[in-house]
Structure formats: C-alpha cells, structure tokens
Hints:
The chain is an alpha+beta fold. Helices cover 48% and strands 23% of the residues.
Amino acid sequence: MAEKNTEKTNKKASHRSKLSQNLRFKEETRSKLAAIVESSEDAIIGKTLDGIITSWNSAAERIYGYTSKEAVGRSISILTPPHPPDEILGILKKIKHGDRIDNYETVRLRKDGKQIDVSLTISPIRDAAGKIIGASTIARNITKQKKIDKILKESEHALRERVKELTCLYSLAKLIERPGISLEEILEGIVELLPPAWLYPEIAAARIILNGYTYSTRNFREAGQHQTANIVINEEQRGVVEVVYLEKKPELDEGPFLREERSLIEAIAREVALIVERKQTDEDKEKLQDQLRHADRLATIGQLSAGIAHELNEPIGSILGFAQLMKKYPELSEKAMQDIEKITKASLHAREVVKKLMLFARQMPPYKTRVNLNRVIEEGLYFLESRCAKEGIKVVRSLSPNLPEIIADQAQMTQVLVNIVVNAIQAMPGGGKLAIRTNASNRFISLTVEDTGVGMSEKVVRQIFLPFFTTKDVGQGTGLGLPVVHGIVTSHSGSISVDSKVGRGTKFEIQLPIAEPGSEKEKA
C-alpha cells in the first residue's frame, strides 16, 4: 500500500515538472516573440474583428506617432484618411473569411495629420480551436521608397522625352542638309517630325503657316488644346508653328504640354526662321550673280554693238548719198524713182537702228540740262493718249506736285517714256489701265509705268534688256526698244527695275538722281 502511494506521488511530481517545463517554454517563447515584435522595424498591430486595436509595438509608435497607451483600445480607423471610407471594412471582411492580404499598398494617417505610404500584410488570428478571433497587421513605411520610385519614374520619363526631342532636332538637321531640297519640302518634312516628339504622339498633329501658306499633317484639325510658337524673321512675324492634341488630355506644365515641349517648339520656330533667311540669302546671291552676268553680257553686247554701228555708218551714209544723187537725174523712169525711194527709206531705217545701237553702247553723247520729268510725261502722253483711247486703255496720272528737277537729256527722257508706254499699249490688246506715277525721295525721283496687260514670265523678264530680244511677231519690233531705255537710264546714273506676272500686268520703275542745287547743264 505504501509503495502504491509513493508511485502515485512520483507520477504527480513528474507531471507537475512537465507542466512547469511547458509553462517555462511557452513563457520563454512568448518573451522571445514579444522581443521580436518590439525590435521589428515594421509596425505590428493586433486588432479584433471589429477593428479595435489590441496590441501596438514600438515600430508602430515610430511610424504612426501614437504611443501604445494612446492606440490600444481605439478603432484602427484612427489611422485611415477620410477617403476611401470603406477600406477597413473591406479588409476585415476578408479576414473574417480567413483570407490573407499580402503587400497591400495604401495610405495611412499619422497622429500629426501627415499621410504616409505603407505596405500592409494582414493575417487572421486564430484561437486554439482554430476560430478566427482577430487580425495581425504588419505595416511597412514605404513613403521614402515611393518618393524614390516617383523620382526614378519621372527621370526615366524625362529621359525618354529628351531622346524624342533630340531625335526630332537631329532628323531636322538631316532634312535640311539634303542637297537640292526646296523650302516647301523642308516645311512639309518638319510637320511630320513634330508629332512623334510630343508626349502623346498618337493623338498629336502639327502644321506650319509661313507667308500665308500652310503645311500640315494629314490628320490636322483645329483643336482646343494646342501649343504655338511664332516664326519671326527680321523682327517681323511671318508665320507660326503649331502642335495640337486631337483629344483632351490632363493639365501639365502648359495645358497638357510639358515645359520642355515649349522649348522644343520655340527652337523649331527659330530654326524655320533661320532656314527661310538662308534660303532668301541664297536667292539674293543668285539674283546678284544673274545681275552680274547680265551686266557683263550687256557690256559685251554694247562693245559689239558699237563696233557694228561704226562699221555700218559709213556704207549707209554712202548709200543714202548715192540714192539722193540718183534722184536728181530727170531721165530716170518712174519705176526707177520708186526703187530709189525704197532704197532711201530702207537706208534711213537702217541709220535709225544704228543710232539706237550707238545709244545703247553709249557712243552718242546726250545733251543734258535741268529737266522737269512731269513736263516730259505730259508732253510725251500728248501724242499717245489718242492711241490709248482708241485701244480702250484708260490712262491714270499720279504726278507728284513740286517734283524736283533732274539733269537729263529731255529728248532721251521722252524716248524712255514713249518706248515703255508703247510696250504697255501693245501688251493690252483688249484694253486695260495704264498708270503713270512720279515720286521723290531725298536723293532720287522715281517714274513708275504700270499696265494691266498680259504680263511676262520670269524667263522673259530676265532677257528683255538684251539687244534684239523680242516677243513680238516678225516686223513688229527690232528688239532694241528696252535695251535703249536701259542704256539711257544707266547713262543718267539711274536704275530700272521690272516686276511682271503673267496675266496680271507689268510694272517698270525708273529711279534718277535729283539735280544738285546750282547745277545748270552739261554735255556728257
């Protein structure tokens, strides 16, 4: 009996020892877990299924600003911003169903009112029987990481945009360098380069307006969201570069456009202005070269004409002299007299042509004196107005009053006017308007003769001052009228210019130097 009691006592002692060991192990485990929870860099929060906070570690205090004493017993909603209001309820509903939520990124509210970005892992808490009695939340503050990610994303985006812009500028440089490319082709190429360089290329369209002409992408249409830059050449606005979005986009730096896109479109506008200036410079250079070549041809032809005139003068004079002597013989028949008259007329015509050649070559000295150009015009038109009326041409004078005098050969000035007016009359076979104007500046007076006739092509304009060049039918012109006009004007230290368009008419403008005070007359 005593042995049985001893055995029972030993068993009880052993059981108590095991229980004590289990309690110590659990206590040690609990202490270790508590230490792990307290030392964690992440906030670890326990809460009931109703959202009441039951535990709150040190990291939670650092992240959210509430002490454990302030947080435990309160609703987890103290950490949530006003929006969205149903987020906590949705999370607790999933926990009640036994679901686990991993790496859920959201926004939480600190005690001081600041919002922070957090990543949450939420797990259900079960009792010994497996029943869900609450939830455990591990929250990591990812605010700094979010900012870094945002900066990296913005930098990557900005880099992509810069690459697009540089690609646009590089493609523009290659386009300009293409040999023989026209300004129109360059502008058409530029508008195609613009949309891919903008933030939303799939809905972007572009156009360039320059000097009243429009160059645009095929999908261009007027839209509310657009970005423009003026094309300014020599301090004068000549056009505009424009990019539009065909769909509404959110606001950025300048409407839906980036600040860098403003810099790009202005750079494109400046480049277009430079291209136009270079093209104009090239065209002016070509015109000057044409003028030099033209002047050289005129000088060469002038020398040739002078030689020919001198060579022809003597035989023409001999022919006229012998013809006049022959006319004195009374024995000549009527038929012979008629033939001699034809010879005389032909010789006189030939002598007139020689005179014009010599005048063109400046071999005939003009007799210059003080001349009022308005008076020359009135006297010259006296003989031509009846012909104009007969041809259905209205003559409009606009002569500047008190026009300063010039030093000129009056007969030659009359010849200049008559030649130009006769050409104008012949250019208006169906009638029209002939305007004659005079004006004065500080140093020059100008004579403008403008008609509404058939006009001339650029090719014809380039040749009208060449001797023997004519667009008239055989027998209707010698091709010396305008070359003589050119010779007279240049011999008076003046200049003559022509502006003509086929179907619109022709305008001649002559500039001559004003006579200096005290100068009377000279023989040049």
